[in-house]
Amino acid sequence: MNEILHAVFSTQGFVLGTLVPFLFVLTVVVFVHEMGHYLIGRWCGIGVKAFAIGFGPELFGFNDRYGTRWKLCAIPLGGYVKFVGDMNATSSQPSAEDIESLTEAEREVAFHTQPIWKRAATVVAGPLFNFLLTIAVFAVLFSLYGRPVMEPTVAEVVAGSPAARAGIQPGDRFVKVDGSKVETFADVQRLVSGRAGDAITFTMLRDGKEITVTATPQPMEQQDALGNKVKVAVIGVANNTELGQPRLVSYTPAGALAAAVEETGHVIERTG
């Protein structure tokens, strides 16, 4: 009996603690992505037959005054915008017979009959809106809660690492990375993470004097916040709360937006 209860509550915990939040985040990301396709497509004069969140049987839906069917489907693992002229949800190139089967009015607003710049703008709009969503999320978080940062001081050097071979020691403080001034430990990570195999010059502060060392970051597989495995470049140093002296940086709305754009750029750089 105990084993059955344990299995039930373990499953319930997985569903509520992992699966539901994952599906919620996925739905938001998909909705924003598809909304990008939809809005720019409409702006370009392309007709839209359907806007769907999920796949499979329709659970709920309605038609708007432009003839677009908005619907929520049973399988919440994606979504799509179906333009006039699309023979399937992937917007793949229709055959000549399929295009001929369209009415003259449909051909005028069909996706595949539009100039290439309109099609390109519509396709690019999806990922562009996801970038804008990321910036908006970071901006709201930074504006409301600030940004925790740590001083760029070395607490530990991994034996045999590029940092150890370069002569970096615990207690050293990063001043510059290849000429770029750093103010936090995260700044160092951002400037290093995308440069595996590149020789980087570090300006360090040791005992009140600046010294210069060169280290070549090596790739290391890590998990990001969503559990995805990504490769980042590291030199083998760590920080801690004692030396890092964590503090919270507050932002004005404009400052939060600028920091959000910068952080989004760093995320793209780290994940390739």
Which key terms come to mind for this protein?
single chain, 272 residues, alpha+beta, Pdz3 Domain, four-stranded antiparallel beta sheet, two-stranded antiparallel ribbon, 8 helices, 44% helix, elongated
Could you describe the 3D structure shown?
The chain has helices at 2-43, 96-100, 104-109, 116-145, 162-166, 185-193, 241-244, 253-271; strands spanning 48-63, 69-83, 147-149, 156-157, 173-177, 180-181, 200-206, 209-215, 218-223, 229-234, 237-238, 247-249. It is α+β, with helices and mostly antiparallel strands and 272 residues long. It has two domains: 2-145, no CATH class; 147-249, Roll (Pdz3 Domain), CATH 2.30.42. The strands form five sheets. The chain has a four-stranded antiparallel beta sheet with strand order 6-5-7-8. A two-stranded antiparallel sheet has the order 1-2. The chain is elongated, with a radius of gyration of 25 Å.
